[in-house]
Design a protein that fits this description.
This protein has about 375 residues and is α/β, with parallel strands linked by helices. The chain has two domains: about 150 residues, 2-Layer Sandwich (VC0802-like), CATH 3.30.2130.30; about 190 residues, Vaccinia Virus protein VP39 (Rossmann fold, 3-Layer(aba) Sandwich). Helix content is about 30%, strand content about 25%. The protein contains ten helices and 14 strands. The strands form two sheets. The chain has a seven-stranded mixed sheet. A seven-stranded mixed sheet has the order 10-9-8-11-12-14-13, with helices on one face. β13 and β14 form a beta hairpin. The N and C termini lie far apart (about 45 Å). It binds S-adenosylmethionine. S-adenosylmethionine (SAM) binds next to α6.
Length: about 375
């Protein structure tokens, strides 16, 4: 089956690497989407294991077309009855871009009508009560190429289930995991986040270190699909539990000056099952010292000008720059959307990468150890 997974802009290469690690072969990657071939079991595993993906879709149709008649017939020809029952609550979203058919409303309603017509043509059903599981279909047309995707994830995959409590500006779990993967953090060296907030980077890091799949404690849309086989899924999850690394000595520290946000971080870590791996300490950055030892520092310092004045941000980033200059043995990674970060830090990064933190364009500054 042709499948695709989407992620935040800038994380495509991290997602491709994750797919390769699952023995899947990613094809192209663009606009936050990566295509790959997979069978149903691999789709289950992709949902369970991918850390940077937001959804995993099965591509049901892909065709160049310019009329609604063609579109209707294309959708009607898909045997939906082999995917879900006639009682499903079918939810269709539609997006049109640079195409002859630009009415998203017509795209949405015709697709839904054609799904029902497909059921009528392929089965004896005449009644569609919509009392069953929710099925999300994504219809899109771009440059006159129509595509229909079946969402196998349900809730977006960044919803791991552990974060009920967030600080002021929490990172999405998928982005936090992406920061750790780009930094090649594997849990063999100590890690510190001196501005940890609700702890997202550190919790994702601990899950990477322990080889805990991010989707282990949540459910997925594919569980209600007709080809779903609970025995196979049980075996996939059992193998995942058995592969959790309980022996590694994981050293992770989170610091923040706000005691309330640290309480949230501790509660989140506990729900994620990694609270014993992370020490959270109430420390003001300017008053603290970070050891210059072979280790990782991954952080997302405050950037919001509504919470801090420009002068306070400048002073803090100068302090971070001075600390970073001293930490020559540490691989230092900093995500920020503050303009002129490099000048404020007064330090030249080894590499920079543009990433999107939701709608906010940010840069991931990477300072590699010097020896
Ligand atoms: C952008 S948030 C970090 C969000 C975090 N990555 C998360 O996912 O929840 C920045 C954090 O820095 C903390 N902070 C601000 N100034 C600080 C300082 N001078 N020293 C230590 N922590 C500080 C804030 O309390 C806030 O929790």
């Amino acid at each position: 089956m042709r499948c695709l997974s989407n992620t935040a802009f800038g994380l495509e290469s991290a997602l491709k690497k994750e797919l390769s690690d699952l023995n899947l072969t990613p094809e192209g990657a663009h606009d936050g989407q990566v295509f790959f071939e997979a069978d149903f079991e691999q789709v289950m595993r992709a949902n369970l294991y991918l850390r940077t993906a937001e959804h995993v879709y099965i591509v049901l149709a892909e065709k160049a077309l310019t009329t609604f008649d063609e579109l209707f017939e294309t959708v009607k020809a898909i045997p939906f009855d082999s995917w879900f029952g006639a009682d499903a609550q079918i939810i269709v979203t539609a997006k049109a871009k640079k195409s002859t058919l630009m009415s998203e409303r017509s795209l949405q309603s015709l697709t839904k009508k054609a799904v029902i017509e497909s059921f009528k043509a392929h089965t004896h059903h005449t009644h569609f009560p919509e009392t069953g599981p929710k099925i999300h279909l994504r219809a899109s047309i771009h440059n006159d190429v129509f595509r229909l995707d079946l969402d196998t994830s349900g809730d977006a995959l960044h919803r791991r289930g552990y974060r009920l409590e967030a600080g002021d500006a929490p990172l999405k779990e998928t982005l936090a995991a992406g920061l750790c993967l780009i930094a090649r953090y594997q849990g063999h060296r100590p890690l510190i986040d001196p501005f940890c907030g609700s702890g997202t980077i550190l919790i994702e890091a601990a899950m990477i270190a322990r080889n805990i799949p991010p989707g282990l404690s949540r459910s997925f849309a594919f569980e209600s699909f007709l080809p779903f086989d609970s025995k196979t899924y049980h075996a996939v999850k059992k193998a995942a539990y058995q592969a959790i690394d309980l022996d590694k000595a994981v050293v992770i520290e989170g610091r923040d000056m706000d005691p309330k946000v640290l309480m949230k971080a501790r509660a989140n870590a506990e729900r994620a099952g990694v609270d014993e791996d992370i020490a959270f300490n109430e420390v003001r950055f300017e008053m603290s010292k970070i050891e210059n030892i072979p280790s990782h520092l991954i952080t997302n310092p405050p950037y919001d000008e509504r919470l801090m004045s420009r002068r306070e941000i400048d002073a803090l980033y100068q302090a971070i720059g001075r600390t970073f200059k001293r930490l020559t043995d540490v691989d230092r990674y900093l995500l920020s959307s503050v303009s002129g970060t490099e000048q404020k830090l007064n330090l030249k990064p080894s590499q920079t990468r543009v990433l999107f933190n939701g709608p906010i364009k940010a840069r991931y500054y990477q300072f590699f150890h010097e020896s």
